[in-house]
């Protein structure tokens, strides 16, 4: 995501906090597809994910005044969506297996997936649960180390070490895989 887009998201959240509900329309155009992706990664059910996104917009309206300027607005929104989706899963008694949040196939036949997507998905399988979570937050939810640390209740140094270690494990896995296939 570009710095310009991040900045615009932050501006829109500030506008919403000031009562400009038209800003919510523009915010929706910018991030609703990504919000749906986050919700679907948790719920694996499009109608339930759409409901979670709608509930998330209500929460954004209610909590926009609590958003801290000059922080990552997109990560803030993703955290709201993720938590809303988890609450939906609890309320509807949907079992959420975090490891399924990393399935890149999205119901597509294996033969139709890109080689790179398959390699990343396979590389994710060599990570432990904490490493998968921080990689998911960094690359799929655009979280900073600070955002992940706060969301996971961990220190920034622990998250940073986990990201670096996970990236290294994934590189080694993919390099070994390429070497064996080439």
Write up what this structure looks like.
The protein is mostly helical. It is 71% helix and 0% strand. It has 8 helices and no strands. It is globular.
Features:
182 residues, mainly alpha, 8 helices
Structural class: mainly alpha
Overall pLDDT, averaged?
A: 82
In whole angstroms, the N-to-C terminal distance is 33 Å
Report on the biggest sheet.
none
Radius of gyration: 17 Å
Coarse morphology = globular
Q: Classify the helix fraction into a percent range.
A: over 70%
Q: Helix and strand succession?
A: HHHHHHHH
Strand content: under 5%
The total count of strands amounts to 0
List the uncertain runs: 96-113
Q: If helices are DSSP runs of H or I spanning 4 or more residues, what is the number of helices?
A: 8
How would you briefly describe this protein structure?
By secondary structure, the chain is an all-alpha fold. The chain has helices at residues 3-17, 22-43, 46-63, 73-91, 115-124, 129-140, 145-152, 156-181.
Please write out the topology.
Layout (H helix, E strand, L loop, with lengths): L2 H15 L4 H22 L2 H18 L9 H19 L23 H10 L4 H12 L4 H8 L3 H26 L1
């Amino acid at each position: 995501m570009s710095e310009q887009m991040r900045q615009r998201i932050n501006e829109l959240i500030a506008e919403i906090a000031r009562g400009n509900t038209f800003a919510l329309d523009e915010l929706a155009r910018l991030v609703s597809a990504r919000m749906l992706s986050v919700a679907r990664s948790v719920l694996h059910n499009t109608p339930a994910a759409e409901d979670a996104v709608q509930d998330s917009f209500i929460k954004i309206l209610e909590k926009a005044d609590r958003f801290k300027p000059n922080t990552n607005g997109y990560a803030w929104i993703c955290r709201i969506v993720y938590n809303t989706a988890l609450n939906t899963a609890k309320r509807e008694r949907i079992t959420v297996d975090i490891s399924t949040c990393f399935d890149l196939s999205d119901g597509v036949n294996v033969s139709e997936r890109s080689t790179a997507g398959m390699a990343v998905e396979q590389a994710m399988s060599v990570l432990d649960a904490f490493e998968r979570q921080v990689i998911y937050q960094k690359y799929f939810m655009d979280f900073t180390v600070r955002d992940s640390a706060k969301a996971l209740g961990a220190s920034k140094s622990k998250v940073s070490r986990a990201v670096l270690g996970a990236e290294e494990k994934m590189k080694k896995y993919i390099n070994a895989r390429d070497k064996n296939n080439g």
